[in-house]
Structure formats: structure tokens, C-alpha cells
Amino acid sequence: xxxxxxxxxxxxxxxxxxxxxxxxxxxxxxxxxxxxxxxxxxxxxxxxxxxxxxxxxxxxxxxxxxxxxxxxxxxxxxxxxxxxxxxxxxxxxxxxxxxxxxxxxxxxxxxxxxxxxxxxxxxxxxxxxxxxxxxxxxxxxxxxxxxxxxxxxxxxxxxxxxxxxxxxxxxxxxxxxxxxxxxxxxxxxxxxxxxxxxxxxxxxxxxxxxxxxxxxxxxxxxxxxxxxxxxxxxxxxxxxxxxxxxxxxxxxxxxxxxxxxxxxxxxxxxxxxxxxxxxxxxxxxxxxxxxxxxxxxxxxxxxxxxxxxxxxxxxxxxxxxxxxxx
Length: 326
Description:
This protein is an alpha+beta fold and 326 residues long.
């Protein structure tokens, strides 16, 4: 009902409580209570005697009503679940899958306290400064193609950042992609993605595509200074988290549509390669089998990192942690 009351409010003129009451079939007392709940969620709503209510400001929060204003029609965003704080949006998404959540369900949080990155790393999202988002998918993919979906998720985050930065500043963001799932800006980590799946031998039962993006965080004076960054630090201004989150969902919807056939998957791989931070550079890759060093030589048709070792042998790596050699 808060969403329906919100839809009745205008930023340009006042709407009377009587009009809202009549339109929605609720009492004026109920209107007042729902206005109070909207204010608690961060909406600035002015009230004037004999005039009614006016929407004076929207919060820069990842609220369902705010994200829907920016979303294009598609699979992703069919349902949006919002948390002020949660341990992990991915864990919340997994519980929703067990409850039968539809494809395209989105889980967002203002603060994430136990998020996961790759290689068992934690990803903490401070309140109101970054983006933590997970999307439930039921892809018709062979499990061997999941690495390409992971590349596509990172590509979607990059495209979203580029769009919003250009729109809000007029400048181009120098974003790069680091295999398999990181987004970099000016040589520092800006965000990352993680795609978790449950699969049988020949099909993926479900996938959770998660993304974390540093938006208005501050890393100066922390142990991550010089290695991690945020959009606010790089451009010396704040950015709209809701616009970025919606842009990520829109781009992920586009990538997911492309991933439904082999041609689309290879187009995703090709686009990722165009922005590959590693290609042609010396790398050290930590894998479950040990350390592999050589020159990054692109990404193959299955989404594996190609590394040419010193003696000329080419390695194709499904997983690992790649760093640039000194």
C-alpha cells in the first residue's frame, strides 16, 4: 500500500489526503499512516494544511519503487526484495529459490555484513555507500558455459558504470575487466561479481548472479587504499546508487538474453576480451593445482583464461586468481 500511496504523490503539486483516500479506497487516517511509513523509508514528504502532501525528495536507496522507475521490461526485476541489512544477498536469494522464487527475482541490500567474493574472500558493503545485489536465474545452459555467464555479468556491471558516469559527469570512465570477474577503474578494483550455481550433469538448475560495486565508499587511510577504489574517489563527487543498480539490472537483462544461444555467448566473450586488463601482460595465476606464470593470451570459447608459459606451452584455466607480475 505504501507503493500505491507513493504513486499518488507529485513533486510539482500537492495532492489532498481526501483525494488519495478516495482513489485507493482507504481512510484518511490510513493515508496518514502510510505517509509516515514512507518517511521512515527516507522519502521527503511535505504536508500543508488544506493542500495535502507533496513529494519533496526521494532517498538514494535501493528500494523496489525506486529501482522500478529505471527498469526496462525484461526478465530481471520481476520481483525485488529489499533489505536494510543482511548477511549476504546471495544467501537470501538461495533461500528464496527454495521457496520457489520466480526467475528474475532481485535481492538488494543497503548494507551487507557477510558477503562473499571469489576464493572465499569476504565482501563487506557499508551502509548506504555501495551496491550489493543478487539476481535469481534459471538458465538453459550446459554447466560448461557458466564461466561465460560470469564474464557476461562482469561485462554488464562495466557497461552500467560507463553509462551512468557518462550521463552524470559527461566524462568517460576508464573501466577494465579482469578475468574472471573483476571490474577495475584506473588500475584499482571497483567491483566484482560472483555467479553461483546448482547443476546436474547436463543442465544448470539455477544460478545466482551477484555483484558488488563501490560507489560512494572511502578507502583512504584503510588497508585497501591504492588497491580498491570507488566512483566517488575517482571523480571527486557522489553518484546515484539507485541509478547504478538499475543500470546493472538492465544490462544484466541484456546479457542474459544474449546468453541463451552459443552465438550470444561468444559475443559476450568477445566483448569481454575488448576490455581485458590482462591480455598481453605477464601474469601469475594461483590455481588449485599451483602457481602458473606466463603471458595472458586472451580467453577461449569456454571462458577459460589462456596463459602462454615461458617455454611456449599454452594453459587454459577454468578458475584461479590472476595478478599482474611485477
